[in-house]
Amino acid sequence: MPVPVPRQRAIPAVECGQAPAASPDSGPSKEQAPPGTHQAENAATRRENTRENPTEKREKPTDTSTETSTGTSSGTGTGTDRTPAPGVRAESAAPTNLTVLLIEDDPAGSPIVPDLLDQSGKPIRVRTARNLTEAGRLLTDDVHCILLDLALSAPAPARTNTDGGGSGNGGDAEGDDELAVLRHVLELAPRHAVLALTSSSDAERGAEAVAVGAQDYLFRDELDGRLLSRAIRYAVERKRSDSAERRLAEGRLRAQENRRLERGLLPTPLLAGSPLRFAARYRPGRSRALLGGDFYDVVRTPDGTVHAMIGDVCGHGPDEAALGVELRIAWRALTLAGLCGDELLGTLQQVLEHERSDDEIFATLCAVDISPDGRRAGLCLAGHPSPLLSRPGTPARLLPYDNNGPALGLLPGARWPRMQVELGAEWSLMLYTDGLIEGHVGGGRERLGQDGMVELVRRQRAEGLTGEELLRATVNEVRELNGGELADDLAVVLLDRTA
After folding, report:
1. 8 Å CB contact between 175 and 150
2. Is the model's pLDDT at 119 over the cut of 60?
3. How would you label 14-46 residue by residue, b for 16+ Cβ within 10 Å and e otherwise?
4. What is the pLDDT of residue 237?
5. What mean pLDDT do residues 39-59 have?
6. Rounded to an integer, what distance in angstroms lies between the CA atom of residue 17 and that of residue 82?
7. How far apart are CA 102 and CA 99, in angstroms?
8. pTM value?
9. Which of 38, 256, 298, 330 gives a 20 to 30 Å CA spacing to 240?
10. How far apart are CA 145 and CA 116, in angstroms?
11. CA distance 248 to 132
12. 14 vs 93: CA distance, rounded Å
């Protein structure tokens, strides 16, 4: 690991990889020198170190997975990083900002990559892999760019064996193998920039490599440190730009899909010609989620009856949201076709049983049908909380729920009785999911519950809140009592009739 260099002292040549380290008996090291050491003595030491032969023959590495800064390529060992001169401490190498993985299988171990410096002048760390197996082992998260020699042998036998030809026959087959190696590397490292290395006589192969997915290609026999360093930086930035553009496009696509799904969950009510006023609030329970498993709808049939529904699929993920959309659309279609009450809910249960991904998934539902004169309503409950009715001069109260039937999807052949309730000339009817009543009160484990929700709405109506303002204040206060975002999805529908 690189060791931070103190700012108070100059960097010795040995720590820059320019000279061998001093012997143990040559006196105290730079770190051990007392504060009074003269600068002239330090400078002399650096000059003497610099005069050492920088091109001294290097030994083969003993650890094939060590990691150092760039330098002359080591011997024929496989899966190695560049190794410094004998005696140089690898951990003393200057920190680097970029790490490059070189994949090439030159049996002689001759360097094809010169010394590299990043934009700030720091060495670029180079790891060397002799085959794709070694590349997979050395391809860690800190690698920024891959240099692939297109002359690398293919990981699989050449396809020319199938047509009776030898492995050396046919230039086209050889080219196909080179691109097969590149495709394998692109599959192995889809998030990394890739630079292809080829000979100056094979520019066409380099262009084909870019078409397959490499960021650029360079001629192996014309490389110099400045050209390659700049190409690496550009390739890394191009890859980052391409990845950001791809993520942006994927985000736009997801947003479009979410909007389509949201239109399914949060429909436009069909209330043309009705004197009733409509308001709704929706909030998914998942953090940063757009959609949940709650759904609702309101339609007016040709006879003047207003039908309203609110439901909750168990769970609050995208699968539950999609199932909620299917149930809502099915409810609207069945309602407009004239079905109501037990017959409608029985058909919805069949839809749920055929569309759910697991037999344990169920849905609760509350459905009301308000007569054309607006004074009476039929109520069907399938395991769902009862609506809240408010009228002038009387406290808000819950509608009867004694004949509450089972949730959809729990009992085959279940029945859902329809109850007749009196609304009066002027009223407000609030349908809600259990996310509104299952939030906690304060820091304890006590939940708000239906009684707490009724008292909350009574107080807000006494303050003169109605419609959208009433729903907004109710949801905000429930969240405040919970101490933050609610764990479950929440949907509320409010229908008002004024005299």
Report:
1. no
2. yes
3. bbbbbbbbbeeeeeeebeeeeeeeeeeeeeebb
4. 82
5. 40
6. 12
7. 10
8. 0.55
9. 256
10. 13
11. 32
12. 9
Average pLDDT, whole number, for the chain? Answer: 76
Q: How long is the chain?
A: 499
Strands 145-149, 99-103: pairing kind = parallel
Place 311 in a pLDDT band, splitting at 50, 70 and 90. Answer: very high
**Radius of gyration of the chain measured on its C-alpha atoms:** 37
Q: Which of 455, 389, 392, 383 shows the shortest CA–CA distance to 421? A: 389
Least confident of 106-120, 443-457, 474-488: 106-120
Q: What is the largest CA-CA distance in the chain?
A: 106
Contact indicator for 197, 227 with CB cutoff of 8 Å: no
Q: How many CA atoms lie within 13 A of 122 on its CB side?
A: 12
**Helix %, strand %, coil % for the chain, to 5?**
35, 20, 45
Query: Phi and psi dihedrals of 371, rounded to 5?
Result: -60, 160
Instruction: Kindly give, in sequence order, each residue whose CB lies less than 8 Å from that of residue 450, ignoring residues fewer than 6 positions away.
Output: 385, 386, 398, 437
Give CA angle at 73 (67, 77), nearest 5°: 75
pLDDT in tens, 204-220: 888 888 888 888 888 87
Give the separation between CA 85 and CA 71, rounded to whole angstroms.
9
The pLDDT score that the predictor gives to residue 382 is 97
Residues 254, 246: Cα–Cα separation, whole Å: 12
Quote the distance between the C-alpha of residue 186 and its chain's center.
21
